[in-house]
Design a protein that fits this description.
PRTase-like; magnesium; Or_phspho_trans_dom; 41% helix; 7 helices; alpha/beta; OPRT
Length: 213
């Protein structure tokens, strides 16, 4: 769910402007899963642009407060959600932790890094939602540690049905600052893609596993 459509459009503009999102419907990328994709998204590039990272940080903070109220803790998902999560925690004046993709193989073998108390409320910060697997693994780890996960907020979401169903099955609310549908509309207005490209771009979002085959 997007809680501010104007902010969503502006963030989509920024992501296209700095090429954090690249669109190549006629020369698809290949993901590690083997899927062919007309889009490549690396939202970590936003950290290199002070104006843009500030806008995104403020968007995150607003979304967190409006949707969940002020949480006890902000948690970032490794690795893409760590830096932005720390910025959001600073903005809100709350502690920060981050969740590893797997438990550390030495020392205390932590999966959650940072100090927290059982029963604390936490909002999870993520950079990108594709299938939702890594985000929900972090949610599961936080819940297993006795934390009350209020929801996940991400910069961008492809809008795959598999992700929507996964979050519903996990009983976890997902909010995003921008998404694929908003972004392709902005790309068309900018002339980044053509009317002819739009059919292919929308087909991919509906069936990404079979698109381009």
């Amino acid at each position: 769910m997007i809680n501010d459509i104007d902010n969503a459009a502006k963030i989509a503009e920024y992501l296209l402007q700095i090429k954090a999102i690249k669109l190549q419907p006629n020369n698809p990328f290949t993901w590690s899963s083997g899927w062919k994709s007309p889009i490549y998204c690396d939202n970590r590039k936003t950290l290199s642009y002070p104006k843009i990272r500030t806008f995104i940080r403020q968007g995150f903070s607003k979304a967190v407060l409006e949707e969940y109220g002020k949480p006890d803790i902000i948690a970032g998902v490794a690795t893409g959600g760590i830096a932005m999560g720390a910025l959001v925690a600073q903005e809100l004046g709350v502690p920060f932790v981050y969740v590893r993709s797997s438990a550390k193989g030495h020392g205390l073998e932590n999966m959650i890094e940072g100090d927290y108390s059982t029963g604390s409320s936490v909002v999870v910060i993520e950079d990108l939602i594709s299938t939702g697997g890594s985000s929900l693994k972090a949610v599961e780890a936080l819940r297993s540690a006795g934390l009350n996960v209020k929801g996940v907020v991400a910069i961008f979401n492809y809008g795959f049905e598999t992700a929507t169903k996964a979050f519903e099955a996990a009983n976890c609310q997902l909010n995003v600052l921008s998404n694929y549908d908003v972004m392709v509309d902005i790309a068309l207005k900018q002339g980044t893609v053509t009317d002819k490209d739009m059919g292919s771009l929308r087909e991919w979002r509906i069936a990404p596993d079979t698109w381009g085959k």
